[in-house]
Write a structure and sequence with these properties.
This protein is α/β, with parallel strands linked by helices and about 525 residues long. It has 20 helices and eight strands. Strands 3, 4, 5, 6, 7 and 8 form a six-stranded mixed sheet that branches. A two-stranded antiparallel sheet has the order 1-2.
Length: about 525
Amino acid sequence: MKTAPPSRMSRADVLAGVSVALVLIPQSMAYAELAGLPPVHGLYASAFPVIAAFFFASSPYMQTGPVALTSLLTLSALMPLAAAGTAEYAALAALLALVVGVARMLVGMLKAGWLVYLMSHSMMAGFLSAAALLILSSQLPGAFGVASPETGVLGRAWFAVAHPEAWDPAAVGLTAFTVAVVIGAAKLHPLVPGVLIAAAVGLVFSVVTGYEGATVGAIPAGLPPVSFDLPWSRLPSLIVPGLVISVIGFAEGVSIARVFASEQRQHWDADREFLSKGLATAVAGLCSGFPIGGSLSRTSVNRLAGAESRWSGLVTGVAVLCFLPFAPVLSPLPRAVLSGIVIAAVWKLIRPRQLLGLWRVSRPQALVAWGTWGATLLLAPKVDHAVIVGIALASGVHLWRELTPHVTAERVEDTLVLEPSGVLWFGSAPALEDKLFARLAAEPDVDRVVVRCGGLGRIDITGAYTLAEMLEQARRAGIDMVLEDVPGHAKRLLSAVGIDTRGPPEAKPGEGASGRGGTGSVAGP
């Protein structure tokens, strides 16, 4: 059994925190661009907010800050409201962060962290794959150095790809170099700072050669501006996207924290993590930042670098804070390098084989995944609406399954044996009744019916009354109908509606005997 994490900062935490900061600085600037903001806002979202996350963090490894998916969701929420890169847009991003932060803190305080587990695997698979495709597409104009017209994310990407004569060779080379270095460094060893190496080389290249392509530009030195002067009148338009980001952006990063906690036999608390990420995101909103979340890649780096406790996250935030006075040194950094950093981070999230594999496992779930995938692309940039579509599809498939119970029917001489499975509730009870009497109508010579209830995981009051009515209707039709294997949790409820469950069950027909009839299936999907 692992010992409890140290209550004091260790040398290993300091080294791990600084290692993550070296990756976070260029990465946060790239994700700010993805969110439609000047790169400096990524630094603002990586200083005080990361420090704030420390106070409620449950995971010793989770690293908070700007992440690709949350940045894309921010872009989708704000593009219809203001022009990207403007002061109005930045103010809306800060207000959106405040909405997301407050929503997450409320979830944590209400101990409703279980909400994150309601995200269907199929829905998330479809959404993440399509979102990664959109993120990659959004970076193509910058990667090729092409000024594309404002025709949407996919439209701008297509324009960039379709006009190779407009490509900037230096931008293409820097992007390719960045992608190769980041991916290659990760394969060599996760602790090799590929992002930092690519950014440093790109910066030196820009300064030495006098690079004339798009660069980061002027970066103000100093601490993030703290302000409550936000566009509060636009708050209603940010509520729905804020709620979507609060859950989806949280779910993106928690999976790896749960895995690490399980491997280390440490406690992981979803409610505390909601509080931690909520406070951090709210602070980002007050410090000219934008919505943030938990990072998979930086969390992995933090653990591999030897982090022993959540103190490493505090070190990361302090390191970025100390760098801010020197941030103008990054002004000549080519934007193509930032595009390469984003592309290298998200390309592996495009998983067509996973989506195709779902079709072999479960076609209804495959429809959920592919429906969400298609909605995400069609509704872009309003991908938050696609999340709602995906949740509706997943809920619809689940409801459809629950409304149509699976029932196995076996004919043994003059007895019909039914074995329903699933949940017998007010939605599925009428379907069970219809299937029974449809089978009886098809076999009028049946004199006895046995309903084995062992496969029913739950029976609600409507299901109990439906069973009582089935017994009464069978009696009136001259059919002897009995219930067997009644689950213990349902006996009191069935007794309350007049069904006697106290007597010993009769011998189950067909055991060791050969029936004159065949077997059939009255089955749901």
